[in-house]
Design brief:
It is found in: Cell membrane. Its main location: membrane. With about 260 residues, this protein is an alpha/beta fold. About 35% of the residues lie in helices and about 25% in strands. It has a six-stranded mixed sheet with strand order 6-7-8-3-9-10, with helices on both faces. Strands 2-1-4-5 form a four-stranded antiparallel sheet, covered by helices on one side. The longest helix is centred in the last third of the chain and has 16 residues. It is globular. The two termini are about 30 Å apart. The structure holds adenosine-5'-diphosphate and magnesium ion. Adenosine-5'-diphosphate (ADP) binds next to strand 2 and helix 1.
Length: about 260
């Protein structure tokens, strides 16, 4: 299952900052859900975000592709500030691939249509071109034989791999994964993680919210530990798992490991 791509669709070179958050704050009413987040993600970097439920991990991901607005601070993607709204926002958002816990495939469209919809509608690709690419991507994530089926006819692991192929079909500059394996039966987790590891090795810039420590150790360049809306610790996976510095992280790891 080689997912390695010719290279992400960006002008940035490896090592350049691709996603930059500066002083990002967000409140839900009284709740300060993102507290002065500063984060710079380099081209080709794989960042794993872990932390207790409710710490703001999903909100952080959603802010990066503007599914959530932020109250202040700036987020830039490949040097461009994320606009508030309009066509420009739609264009920039198309450059951020997102894979959710619930696969969010269109139930009444075939697997192939799920993958070609964005490229045809948003990228204005001719249907044949979009289908050719979709078939290649489905092949790469190991569901090439399922193209004519509907989502409900696939296992959860297969659906999630289709969701990854669908995101990749837009040639995103960065891929965000929000607990992509949390809703899967245990025997299907590996097949999804394998695709993600391959993507990481192929140079894709990735932000992955997950508690899959095996994935973090294998693929992450950096682990961020979030608690109460803040990044309280960041380190290499080796250092983070062996020597968590903060009590919060030690406490969290003692519960999940
Ligand atoms: P995590 O993904 O780390 O579990 P979330 O980012 O989903 O955390 O949520 C962080 C906090 O913000 C939680 O307390 C959650 O209840 C709250 N929250 C999330 N979305 C909303 C919303 N749309 N309105 C109000 N509160 C929200
Ligand atoms: Mg979440």
């Amino acid at each position: 299952m080689a997912v390695s791509e010719p290279g992400p669709a960006t002008t940035a070179s490896p090592g350049d900052a691709l996603v930059v958050l500066e002083h990002v704050n967000k409140w839900f009413g009284e709740l300060h859900v993102l507290q002065d987040i500063d984060l710079s993600i380099k081209q080709g970097e794989v960042v794993v975000v872990i932390g207790p439920s409710g710490s703001g991990k999903s909100t952080l991901c959603r802010a990066i592709n503007r599914l959530e607005t932020i109250d202040n601070g700036t987020i830039t993607l490949d040097g461009k500030k994320l606009p508030e709204e309009g066509k420009e926002l739609a264009n920039l958002r198309a450059e951020v691939g997102m894979v959710f816990q619930s696969f969010n495939l269109f139930a009444h469209k075939t697997i192939l249509e799920n993958v070609t919809l964005g490229p045809i509608k948003v990228r204005k690709q001719p249907k044949e071109q979009a289908e050719k690419r979709a078939n290649e991507l489905l092949e790469r994530v190991g569901v090439g034989h399922q193209a004519a089926k509907y989502p409900a006819q696939l296992s959860g692991g297969q659906q999630q791999r289709v969701a990854i192929a669908r995101a990749l079909a837009m040639d995103p500059k960065v891929m965000l994964f929000d607990e992509p394996t949390s809703a899967l039966d245990p025997e299907m987790i590996k097949e999804v993680l394998d695709v993600m590891v391959d993507l990481a090795r192929g140079g894709m810039t990735m932000v992955v919210v997950t508690h899959e420590m095996g994935f973090a150790r294998t693929a992450a360049d950096r682990v961020l530990f979030m608690a109460d809306g803040a990044i309280v610790e960041e380190n290499t996976p080796e250092e983070f798992f062996e020597n968590p510095r903060t009590e919060r992280a030690q406490d969290f790891l003692s519960k999940i490991l």
